[in-house]
Amino acid sequence: MSTAAFAQKIQIGVKGGATMNKLTAQTFKESFSFGYHLGAFASLGLGKKFAIQPEVLFNQVNVDTSSSFSSIYKFNKLNNVQLKYLTIPVLLNINASKALTLQVGPQFGILINKSNTFVQNGQNAFKSGDLAMLGGVQLNLGSFKVYGRYAVGLNNINDIDNKDKWKSQSIQLGIGLKL
After folding, report:
1. Residue 1, domain member (yes or no)
2. DSSP SS3 for 116
3. Closest by alpha carbon to 109, among 92, 126, 128?
4. How many Å apart are CA 31 and CA 79, to the nearest integer?
5. What is the CATH number of the domain that holds 57?
6. Cβ neighbours around 2 below 10 Å, total
7. Is 2 part of a structural domain of the chain?
8. Around 146, how many Cα atoms within 13 Å sit in the side-chain half-sphere?
9. Cα–Cα–Cα angle for 151, 51, 90, rounded to 5 degrees
């Protein structure tokens, strides 16, 4: 019985780091822009090799428009866009070793704030939700965790029209602290 209780160990912690974002579309630049993320995680052990790790993260997403944005959407001098998301990844942790964890799973993002530029132009440009898939690795160094992830958006977040499909991509690099 004590072995079963140990195998389902629950850990909680905090994390944060840098996020590099871009939207794949002809109206946005093909380069990544920097933002950040902060939040908390819980990990529920499912034996020695697996765990489920839900997280709640605040993400600041910065993306730059391309020169074709204004000609397609008739916005004046709109160069960069800042979005703020509450993201909820639910990851499957696969413990390759004591120090290395592979992570994979879905992430749902809820848009909580967008650039005032779009509001000023009277448009609701971005959909309120973004579904993505994550994959990455995490190094476990005692109570500290160092991680890198790649997320690719699965749905079109363009809420203006279907002229251009906007899909998110991001790379997260960060550290976590198990409490």
Report:
1. no
2. helix
3. 128
4. 13
5. 2.40.160.20
6. 6
7. no
8. 4
9. 35
pLDDT at 93: 97
Q: Which two tokens stand for residue 13?
A: 């912690």
Instruction: Report yes or no on 137 lying in a domain.
Output: yes
Q: Which residues, 6+ apart, have CB-to-CB distance to 6 below 8 Å?
A: none
Give the domain range for residue 68. 7-178
Cα separation, 59 vs 167, in Å, equals: 16
Instruction: Indicate the number of domains in the chain.
Output: 1
Q: Do 58 and 110 touch, CB atoms closer than 8 A? A: no
Q: List CB contacts of 32: < 8 A, sequence separation 6 or more.
A: 20, 21, 22, 169, 171
45 touches 9 (CB < 8 A)? yes
Phi/psi at 14 (5° precision) = -120, 155
Determine the residue type at 100. Answer: L
pLDDT tens-digit profile, the chain (179 residues): 444 444 468 999 999 999 998 876 655 667 788 899 999 999 999 998 999 999 999 998 776 665 555 555 555 555 667 778 899 999 999 999 999 999 999 999 888 875 545 444 334 556 667 788 999 999 999 999 999 999 988 776 665 566 666 777 899 999 999 99
